[in-house]
Design brief:
heterodimer; A: 114 residues; 38% helix; B: 497 residues; alpha+beta; nine-stranded mixed β-sheet; 17 helices
Chain lengths: 114, 497
């Protein structure tokens, strides 16, 4: 359903491996995870097994089936537009590792702003 | 302490950029090139509370006072959709002629301290509004690809020596804005120049305000624009590599950024090079765009449907109810005045001032369109103008066009009408404004001619600038109460013999 999975499905990867080591390294870098070579091998195998398990669905023609966006057949759960002012300012800042001038103090940046 | 700058790597500046410090905003592309522009406009919705939490949606509060466990991303909290935000989004979608459909919220994953959850809730493959269009005053129609709902991010302020993000130092984060409901309106690449881009955003702003979806304030960040820009040989229909220009915070910046970026593309092509698909940041002071990171990496947000939120499926009845409640849109309001005899420019100004209904009603009661709209433009940019009685306004215009009042007198009477609500005839009588009979004027002129025979004969021989002399003399004698048009007519008649 996500872009990533679609591109994997369309890929020219042979039957035996749907997910490459590079795919896992790429996703790990997006998630800001540092994996060792041994971990990359291990997780590639595990994640590949998950995809292999889901592959059964390929045997069916699901072209006419509406994708399931949510398991419950429920829609339109709305809240009224009414303010609930909680005085959580001090409590929230007290939980932060660092705070200054009523704001959360953080390292310069972890990456770039999208 | 400065507001955070979009991150920029100085090592990514090409030789072209370093060399190009020339101001380009007044230049235009060579005729054989054409601009291809699509805009993404973010507008904050005019709700009381945030998109998924009951915290207050308000600009300018003390930092981190409009927060709630949901918008702080605390574990165990669940988002609940603000129904009003959905309604306002549908209002805008309908005003933009969109198809309103069953839609789904998706998570857009990225790491940045302005989003405490490490993802932003947005819409991806199933947005609320699709396939609309917006018609500009020029008659050109700009396609709307989608208008989807999402939440705003928090605001980070960098504290460091030069205020640049890659310096040592730290950032302070305020989550008051995190979770404020946004609608993102994505146009097709149908826009062909900086002026048209500005016109599109200005019209979109008017629509947002007219339907009550947003206050549309650039200066408070309620309205923000990203421009997808490319160029191509004029007349072709290809789509070449585009760059997304961010950090454009006013209509003026938008025009300048587009002019700069398209010229950069043309220069690259002419030099046998080509632009790279990337995000670039507009530098208002430097008057240029700078490279951000590559698009390839930027787009990898790993969207997936948010399991915490069920789909939104507006019923046809609800959509119809909202459609019925929409106001007359700015375009139709302008058109109505044009159809009644006004010029496009005067009609636009009347709508801008919210005086178009008054003008239309006065015109419907026989007031001359040109005079009516002239008063709206010149004499009614005042408090209380909306409370004018249309019949009184029409009466005033009729008095003026009928010769009962001069333009100067009409202006004075109108000002008093706004103040007191009295009828124009009463005010004119009270002030002793009465139309000067042309015979009276003629008598006056005869006296002036007798006093300045030399000037008069020169005027009759064609020395046109002396018209001002005689007009001035008559105005002086009548203390400004004579009608300029009548004087001109009389001078023409008399000098012709």
């Amino acid at each position: 359903m996500s872009v990533r999975t679609d591109s994997v499905n369309e890929g020219a990867e042979p039957e035996s491996s749907r997910l490459s080591r590079e795919d896992v390294a790429h996703v790990a870098s997006l998630a800001l995870l540092e994996l060792t070579d041994a971990e990359l091998d291990e997780f590639t195998g595990q994640l590949d097994a998950v995809l292999e398990h889901a592959k059964d669905i390929d045997a069916l023609d699901v072209g006419d089936v509406e994708p399931t966006y949510h398991p419950y057949p429920v829609t339109n759960v709305f809240r009224d537009d009414v303010v609930e002012q909680l005085d959580v300012h001090d409590a929230a800042l007290a939980m932060a590792p660092e705070a200054e001038d009523g704001q959360f103090r953080v390292p310069p940046a972890l990456g770039e702003e999208p | 302490m400065t507001d955070i700058e979009q991150p920029v790597s100085s090592t990514m500046l090409s030789a072209w950029e370093v060399d190009s410090k020339v101001e380009r905003e007044t230049s235009h592309l060579p005729a054989e090139w054409e601009m291809v522009i699509g805009l993404e406009v973010h507008a904050e919705l005019a709700t009381e509370t945030k998109m998924f939490s009951p915290a207050r949606n308000h600009f300018g509060s003390e930092p981190n006072t409009n927060v709630h466990p949901v918008c702080l991303g605390l574990p165990g909290t669940l988002p609940v959709v603000n129904g009003k935000a959905v309604e306002l989004s549908i209002r805008l979608g309908l005003a933009l002629n969109c198809h309103v459909q069953r839609c789904v919220f998706a998570r857009k994953n990225y790491f940045y301290p302005d989003m405490p959850k490490d993802y932003q809730i947005s819409q991806y493959d199933r947005p609320l509004n699709i396939n609309g269009w917006l018609e500009l005053a020029s008659g050109h129609t700009i396609g709307i690809e989608r208008a989807h709902m999402e939440e705003d991010t928090g605001k980070s302020t960098h504290v460091g020596e030069s205020g640049r993000i890659h310096d040592a130092g730290y950032s302070l984060v305020d989550y008051n804005r995190a979770g404020v409901p946004l609608i993102e309106i994505v146009s097709h690449p149908d826009i062909r120049g900086p002026e048209e881009a500005k016109e599109y955003v200005a019209e979109l702003q008017r629509i947002l305000i007219a339907v009550g979806a947003s206050d549309g304030k650039f200066e408070e960040g309620s309205l923000r624009v990203d421009a997808n820009v490319s160029v191509r040989p004029a007349g072709s229909d290809e789509l070449r590599t585009r760059c997304e220009v961010k950090n454009v915070n006013s209509l003026r910046s938008l025009g300048r950024a587009i002019q700069y970026e398209t010229q950069r593309h043309v220069d690259l092509y002419l030099a046998g090079d080509r632009p790279v698909q990337e995000t670039r940041h507009w530098d208002e002071e430097g008057g240029r765009t700078r490279a951000g990171r590559s698009k390839e990496q930027a787009e990898d947000y790993r969207y997936f449907p948010d399991p915490d939120l069920v789909p939104v499926d507006p019923s046809p009845e609800w959509i119809e109810e909202i459609r019925q409640s929409l106001p007359v849109l700015p375009r139709e309001r302008r058109q109505r005045l044009v159809d009644a005899g006004g010029t496009a420019q005067a009609a636009a100004l009347a709508v801008e001032r919210d005086l178009d209904q008054l003008a239309f009603d006065a015109m419907s009661q026989g007031a001359d369109p040109e005079r009516t709209l002239k008063h709206v433009a010149n004499n009614l940019a005042v408090d209380g103008a909306q409370t004018l009685d249309p019949s009184n306004f029409a009466e005033l215009v009729k008095l003026e066009t009928g010769g009962g009042l001069t333009a100067t007198q009409a202006k004075q009477v109108l000002a008093e009408m706004v103040e007191t609500g009295n009828a124009p005839g009463d005010i004119a009588a009270q002030r002793g404004f009465e139309a000067m009979e042309s015979s009276e004027l003629e008598g006056l002129l005869d006296g002036i001619i007798a006093a300045s025979p030399d000037e008069w004969s020169r005027f009759c021989e064609g020395e046109a600038k002396l018209q001002g002399f005689f007009t001035g003399q008559i105005m002086k004698a009548t203390k400004g109460q004579a009608d300029g048009k009548e004087i001109a007519k009389l001078l023409a008649q008399k000098s012709a013999g």
